[in-house]
Amino acid sequence: MSEIPPRIALFLRTLGGGGAERVLLNLAQGFVQARLEVDLVVSAGEGLDLWEIPIGVRVINLEAPRVSASLPALVRYLRQERPIAIIPSLHYANEVALLAKYLSGVPVRVLIPEHNELSMEVHYHEMGSRKRLIPVAARLLYPFADAIVTVSKGVAQDLAHITGLPLKRIQVIYNPVITPQIQELAKESIDHPWFNADEPPVILGVGRLEDQKDFPTLIRAFAQVRQVSPARLMILGWGPDRPQLEDLIRELGLEEDVALPGFVNNPYAYMARASVFVLSSAWEGMSNVLVEAMAVGAPVISTDCKSGPAEVLNYGEYGNLVPVGDSHAMSEAILDVLNGHSKAVDSAWLNQFTLEVVTQQYLELLDIPVTECSTKFA
């Protein structure tokens, strides 16, 4: 009789349109291919239709109005299913998972991933925002985690400073951004006239429309680019700042040359056809979209923000770095790339961001013997 494979749970509030959700689904795919039983546990079922759930992943909807209210249901899930490990994603799923382990009495391993610098979360939110409680909750509960992972060295250093945890307790594992499907998805056609032959070059940004991504700086930089050279700007994503961005576009007279299509299921096809990809963020943990753009061959430019982009670009070797909030420097870098001065990326450098490599790192950290699993990917 064959041995029952280990079960692993991935827990988050809901499947929105962000990079952390895509990372979790990539991990789910990696664990399935490593012959684990995988549960995607969500406190609310919103957004499930936005994503293609990997085949073999079971979705558990706890049907809670908010992530903190899902604690009793998560305790019941742990007692009933007894997974070998649980990996939450984002706050306060991280903290709820740690409490659920304690209350359930189940010897489940809790691996806490940290995607952003907590100090930046505090800096960019109002005093009354609940997000300002995140560092306090992390300081109290993270010491009880079985493993802690950050997505960059900078995030690790920030987390150690905020929580008082020894740096040696924190493992840096880059996000599993590059999957076997990316190259195929990048080849899919785009039904948009801007990408037809003989059209002006398209500058692309991708991300949630919020203050962290600082798309106003990108729009102002584009306005300066357009004064010198014909071009267009497209920003993929949705978020609360869309009205303000639309106001800025009108103010600068860019309505005909800037598009905000919203969320798209396949951003890779746009990245592969963009003349330059620009990350304009005020801060990032790592930046999945920067890696994705590099993987499909787009020339890239990024702000030199804390903390991941410089690491991703090997400190400027594989893409231009510009100061945060400096639209003039960004416009100069964009024009440089449009004039043919882009930086080639070594394929060996990208290997550390592949699903196969990262999945194996997680298996080793969770002490799941790789001899029990197949980590060979199609």
Give a verbal description of the structure:
The chain has 378 residues and is α/β, with parallel strands linked by helices. Helix content is 37%, strand content 17%. It has 15 helices and 15 strands. Helix 1 crosses helix 15 (355-365) and helix 8 packs across helix 13 (327-338). Mean pLDDT is 91; it is low at 371-375.
Number of helices: 15
Let me know the CATH homologous superfamily of the largest domain. Answer: Glycogen Phosphorylase B
The helix-strand sequence is: EHEEHEHEHHEHEHEHEHEHEEHEEHEHHH
CATH architecture of the largest domain: 3-Layer(aba) Sandwich
The termini sit apart by 27 Å
Number of strands: 15
Strand content: 15-25%
Q: Class by helix and strand content?
A: alpha/beta
Domain unit count: 2
Helical residues, percent: 25-40%
What is the CATH topology assignment of the largest domain? Rossmann fold
- What is the CATH domain class of the largest domain? Alpha Beta
On the 0 to 100 scale, the average pLDDT is: 91
Give the neighbour order of strands across the main sheet: 3-2-1-4-5-6-7
Envelope shape: globular
